Amino acid sequence: MKDLIDCAMKRQPCDLVLKNARIFNVFTGETEYGEIAVKNGRIAAVGAGYCGRIEYDCKGAFALPGFIESHVHVESSMLSPEEFARLVLPRGTTTVIADPHEIVNVCGIAGAEYLREAFARVPLDVFLQLPSCVPATPFETGGARIDGERTATELAKDTFFGLGEMMNYPAVLAGEEDCLLKLASANSCGKPIDGHAPALSGEALCAYAACGIATDHESLTAAECREKAARGMYVQLRVGSSANHLRETAKAVDPFNCRRFLLCSDDKNARDLQTRGHMDDALRQLVVCGVSSGQAVCTATLNAAECYGLKDRGAIAPGRIADIVLAEDLNRFEVRAVFKRGKIVAEDGKTMFSVSQSVPDCVRDTVKIQDVCADRFRIPVKSGKVRALQVRPHGLVTDEIVLSVPCGDDLHLQGTDLNKLAVIERHRASGNIGLGLVKGYGLHGAALAITVSHDSHHLVVIGDDNARMARAAMLLKEAGGGMAFVSSEREEVFPLDVAGLMSSAPAEEVIARTETLDALARGAGVKDCYEPFMTLAFLSLAVIPKLKLTDRGLVDVEKFAFVPLEVTEEI
Amino acid sequence: MKDLIDCAMKRQPCDLVLKNARIFNVFTGETEYGEIAVKNGRIAAVGAGYCGRIEYDCKGAFALPGFIESHVHVESSMLSPEEFARLVLPRGTTTVIADPHEIVNVCGIAGAEYLREAFARVPLDVFLQLPSCVPATPFETGGARIDGERTATELAKDTFFGLGEMMNYPAVLAGEEDCLLKLASANSCGKPIDGHAPALSGEALCAYAACGIATDHESLTAAECREKAARGMYVQLRVGSSANHLRETAKAVDPFNCRRFLLCSDDKNARDLQTRGHMDDALRQLVVCGVSSGQAVCTATLNAAECYGLKDRGAIAPGRIADIVLAEDLNRFEVRAVFKRGKIVAEDGKTMFSVSQSVPDCVRDTVKIQDVCADRFRIPVKSGKVRALQVRPHGLVTDEIVLSVPCGDDLHLQGTDLNKLAVIERHRASGNIGLGLVKGYGLHGAALAITVSHDSHHLVVIGDDNARMARAAMLLKEAGGGMAFVSSEREEVFPLDVAGLMSSAPAEEVIARTETLDALARGAGVKDCYEPFMTLAFLSLAVIPKLKLTDRGLVDVEKFAFVPLEVTEEI
Predict the structure, then answer these.
(1) H helix runs in A126-244, sequence order
(2) Which of A296, A306, A503, B348 measures 20 to 30 Å from A468, CA to CA?
(3) What pLDDT score does A570 carry?
């Protein structure tokens, strides 16, 4: 503190002085031309006439506080933490609130520990939430289980920043004991609780907010955003790879309520991070949607800092951590340089630090399945009537379709618009395989397989031929997880060596390999309205209507119950 | 939590439902017509169709969150905590951040304990800051001493909410070790630090803010407010009995920066609290100054809650404490009823709770002085030149005047415009008496004495006759502190039985008795531009320029040194 005072008072030279900056002030909305004086990673002063051991000429660029990503599942990038950091830091992101929901569902707390250790090697501050829904539903064989007691124990330690998005809102509204214990433990430690309340409104929204759940990122309309803000929740405007309703949700922002809005990406893939950007992209889009530049900057800085009680950041002001982004302007937010704790970490899109990756054993070799032969994919039909799921275009919601099919020992799909879908339990090699049918996916003469499948991340296979499906599954068993394509001409595998979810390869390779696989799947007929592998990854998420498949069978999400593949009763 | 959910979902009746309210939403700035459902002292829901064991018809009144007073020295009201609460609760104040700077300077930590216990008996939440400047200056014999080590020990406990206003900004800027230890201990416990930075600007303001000092209430101009806000401080707009620059400072508030502004009274006497009000008065004045009603309400509610990390209040929203004010409108803020934690505590200006006062021994009989005779007030003069202090009209700043006077064993004041001023050490009966001269106060043929004298609260006497001054001092010794008037015709004493600072009498009596004493003093000639007793109470505060008197002698505040009463060198 003495050093900061001495530097501010010019009795001591600073470590770094940013000169000739247009410093945007998130408290006043004004821009001051001047200098930012930095000592020991903190901002000592904003002013003029400072000298430092390093003096950086900003050449009139805008200086903004480092961006805060308020809610993301890093695993969705399929990148290692180190590679994720390498992509987002040059985009101006210096702080991330991450919910390691995916890897914890596979590896338990050890998965979060891995992320924590990996992020500690890069100049990015990542605050990890303890996932609140492990497993996400009672319909699947989870890789891990974190109940209320365990949640209380973990939150009492310093390791987790807060409680991750409480997706199980039905349990909250029903007042289920184990769920309330999780919420109460976060509240009693004064730790933030993230929410997930799609379309919740009125009494239900009040009940949900009354539990101290502070945020929500699921709003699709301006009215939904406004109601959540009115009930005291922070609204996280989501700019993700698939989910992006900013054109609607941004309409909710006005000068009075804007302090209650944050930005998040939730799920963003490596390609989008590489080509479009991260928080810089979200800011750009927000301004295009008509939000003023000043208000937009606050959503990615001060507002997020306030929401999460991070008093040490979110502004360029004395005493705060020197996380600073230099941008060309306040419309396109093209990032010229990024400083993290007073050290330059990126310039002109390139990172300026090196890091050696390390993947511990606890997150490797996590795909444990029994050998599967083609016969395991047989679907015998007795009644002549089966239910199939059909995915709505450009979305994750499915409809249930009932079809008449020939009876027999197996259902042959050649010449139909159907694919077989299998979810193979992959945590305990239990041999569980859930089987179902998908209508209209378009895949012909090939099988796709992936070990990313929300939220328990079993091995999902789709295809129209039992042998190719078995082959695809076995390829992923050998690879320790990943993505596979199998046709009569070609076999292609991209291993996801970290928990079967993420690759330790460089981002460029992850992007290229996933593009290759997507292209092969498209070549085999997958329709344009679907993401060949990523749509697949959500077909076992039994919290989104209507019909989903887990390793234990088909789930009718609305009835919240298993249903058989064959339709025997009247429906 | 289960109860709150069940009430919000209408599965259980509420404890209280406020019906037909115009509910002002501090998040959106909008007003909703509807109901507030309350359970276990918390808000379960905002909506319609709720039923409760008690249903209160608001008849269309505006419902606002309970007001938060962000910085006050309760002792300045001269009221006991219970009586203070009785005056401010009907005005809508439900939460107070109090700095017990006065009583702790007299009684040490025990003084704060007394306040804490007394406030626990009334339905008002008072968060006590640990005073940071005890004693305030090195020039006086303090009643207590709290150094950096002690500060660290006290802040590590749960008892104090944060660190009280750091008035010793020269020590901060100089980086004095003991001072920085206080700041660092508050920061390391994550507790808020209040500031006091009159006219601080530029580098000095940066240095001060860099220490994590979060607030300031000393700004006199809009420019000063704006600069403090820009450096990340919360600006507390002060509406006190003497200090009120709202007409200037309110100009600083705009729609972008308004979230950084709070309201406080700092020092407000009982009469003003009774006749003008408290936070309701501040709100009324703020709106008159041109700040929108919505922004104004936020300064007294959400903004203060955010500043101090009080996530459980500051808004009418699910999960928050049910502190609710019903007001006729959003311009005059006439308070109709006040609910504290879901219970009605005031209606139409009357409190609806009873409380029995209790004053513990530790804050009684605190005025310890030796017997003083008239001779102790003799001022022998050798040089023929003395310095006198002259108080600027309507203020606390003094100027130093040098006067030629006759030499002799004592200075006789009859026929002059001078009074004698004495500061009698009153904590240890040391016999210390500081003597000085005041020009232009106007007092003739009488002596005034008071044991409120910032910040060490010695016994201050002013008069033009040694015998009457001695008599006034002895009357206060007998009374255990208070205010005294002595003339040849009349003796009047109002005891301040609590630490010599506050009275345990009802507010109405405190107001009447102080008015009587003021009237007597006016009758004895005290000029209209001074508050007869209160101006006196600041003549020993050696942090305000220019010449002040402590029990150890005259202090030149600008030179930060003692000076003799007689002028011997050339000046």
Answers:
(1) 148-156, 169-174, 177-188, 202-210, 222-230
(2) A503
(3) 57
CB half-sphere exposure, B491, CA atoms < 13 A = 11
List phi, psi (to 5°) of B85. Answer: -60, -40
A193 token code pair:
């609780």
Q: Which residues of B touch A37 (CB under 8 A)?
A: 206
Closest chain B residue by Cα to residue A35: B203
pLDDT in tens, A71-84: 999 999 999 999 99
pLDDT, averaged across chain B = 96
- Token readout for A64 is 């903004």
The pLDDT of residue B143 is above 90:
no
Instruction: Give dist(CA B425, CA B430) in Å, integer.
Output: 7
Q: Say if residue B356's pLDDT is above 90.
A: no
Q: Cβ separation of B172 and A226 shorter than 8 Å?
A: no
The phi, psi pair for B549, rounded to 5°, reads: -120, 125
Cα of A50 to nearest chain B Cα, Å = 10
| Tens digits of residue pLDDT in B43-95 | 999 999 999 999 999 999 999 999 999 999 999 999 999 999 999 999 999 99
CA distance A496 to chain B (A): 41
- Is B315 at the interface with chain A, CB within 8 A? yes
Angstrom distance (rounded) from CA A514 to CA A535 = 14
Adjacent-strand bridge partners of B127: B97
Which residue, among A7, A201, A205, A231, would best test binding to B if mutated, counting the most B CBs under 10 Å from its CB?
A: A231
ipTM summary value: 0.94
Is A564 within 8 Å of A549 (Cβ atoms)? no
Q: Tens digit of pLDDT for each residue in A415-440?
A: 899 999 999 999 999 999 999 999 99
| Prediction pTM value | 0.95
Q: Amino acid identity of A230? A: A
Question: Hey, what are B26's tokens?
Answer: 């501090």
HSE (CB half, 13 Å, CA atoms) of B350? 3
Residue A396 has pLDDT above 90, yes or no: no
Q: Is A559 on the interface with B (CB under 8 A)?
A: no
Q: How far is CA B37 from CA A205, A300, B324, in A?
A: 14, 34, 12
Q: For residue B292, what pLDDT band results from cuts at 50, 70 and 90?
A: very high
Residues 6 or more apart in contact with residue A457 via CB below 8 angstroms: A102, A105, A106, A143, A426, A451, A499, A500, A501
A1 touches chain B (CB under 8 A): yes
Half-sphere exposure of B142 (CA within 13 A, CB side): 21
Angle between helices B148-156 and B177-188 (to 10 degrees): 10
